[in-house]
Amino acid sequence: MNLDCDASSSSQRLFFLDWLRIIAFIVLVFYHVGMYYVTWDFHVKSPFAGHGLEPWMKLSEPWRMSLLFMVSGAATAHWFKRGGSGARLRVRTRYLLLPLMCGIVLVVPPQSYFQVVQKFHYTGSYLDFLSLYFSHYKGFCHNDHCLILPTWNHLWFLPYLWVYTLLLWALLKLWPNALMILSPWVALVWGGARLLLVPMAVIFGLRTVLFARYPETHALWNDWFNHAVYFSMFLIGVFFASTPAMWACLGVWRWPALMIAVCFWALLVGVQPGGLAEHAVVAIFQWSALVAAFGFAQRLLNFEHPLRQHLTEAVFPVYIFHQTLIIVLSQLVLPLGWHPVFEGPVLVLATLALSYMGYQGVLRVPVLQPWFGLRRTVRV
Fold first, then answer.
1. Nearest alpha carbon to residue 19 among 310, 319, 373, 253
2. Which of 20, 87, 221, 337 has its Cα between 20 and 30 A from that of 157?
3. What pTM was estimated for this model as a whole?
């Protein structure tokens, strides 16, 4: 097998990043429906919740958000290539933070309402709950942990991405040639098999040092393990976008990475939680899965299609709507007592359909578009 990188295709437009982002958000819908049926913590839980789906959830759980941060890093690098002015940062800020504010005020509250109804046996109406939600009520507590209100829930990705974008912008303001100088060095250090081994070692080190000390919170503050991993993935996307030949390297290593990922996913399913063994398995699986995902996308999905731009625009509003729809729909059909084998696919299809309908509705009201992640008026 020839594992030398072929940079001849590195000058092509990177359509595969858009397709990968579209697929990742579709997988996110499946994942969050799955969270309703497993024993892991989620806002609401099915009466049928159990361990059956958990091995399949682990197939994407360790790397799906890292993939999105890598894609976002690449997109942000291309964005700043057009100019690193404060005006461009302000545009990026509006693009990320207006949907966050809209989500906190309009989209997320039903999630928290059904959560307190199920987990805290709240009996008030939704309007009564909203008065608590917006008054920063701190009375929904369990085991010394109180529900934070108001909250951003699944929209945590947006403030994290904004902070990372701000840090990149500040770096480029202080050191305008940083990417030009550092990217070739990154490509040199990560040459050959080091493309697999170096990131695996870094992830393992971060997990060993930070994972137990800073449990995942998605609260932005004090979430240092997540920041260490996700900001690293964001920067990898930035450097890869600045050295396009690196995408071709991922394509070259796609098959070895896929085989490693499958083997270590199997190990992850059976490994004892906690300890160095789990950290090593997750680190190897996480990065090899990312290399396989980007590598196969680079080889198979680097093409234009009329659906690409349309779906690329749709994924942001779908992302905003999807988790609220999952939770609301799950509670609406709960009295029917459907088995997960039937109920789960219904939730997935209904969520995708209604999220897309929400996107279409936003398109028809231009004033709403920036509040749901659309940068410009689109002709319907």
1. 310
2. 87
3. 0.95
